[in-house]
Every structure is written in structure tokens, then in C-alpha cells.
Amino acid sequence: MERRGDSSIDPDEPVARTPRMKALDTLAEAFIAKTELEKDLGFFKEMGDRLDGKPAQAIVGEDGGALVVKIEASDAAL
Does the CA dihedral 51-35-33-11 come out positive or negative? Predict the structure, then answer.
């Protein structure tokens, strides 16, 4: 199977592929086919999220503002 956009790969010359490489090839072809049919940008986002891993969760205060940390001490506990 010819890689799209890679002119250095000869489609007539077989390349030894590991099972993991074959799985990635199948995934890539399915991804390309789906995006060509649906033009769904949400699919691109979901795929990118899975490839990049879970993004760090933002820690914010009320209403998305700055986080306020309050430390109180009391002599009553002594």
C-alpha cells in the first residue's frame, strides 16, 4: 500500500511490516477514508486527543478565575 505524500516509498516493492505497523496502517487508512467522506473536524480533534494523550486539566478558581489558596492557623488546637 502506497503511503500518501511519501514519494520515497516504492508501491511496487514490499516492505516488511510488524503486526503493530500493520495495525497503524489500518488505522491510518480508516482515518483518511472517514475524513474524506465526512469532512468532520470533530473526528480530527478526537483522533488528535488520543494520539497526544490526555491534556493536563486546568486548575482554576470560581468562574474560571485565579485559584485562591487560604491557609489558616489557630492556637485553639494546641
Answer: negative
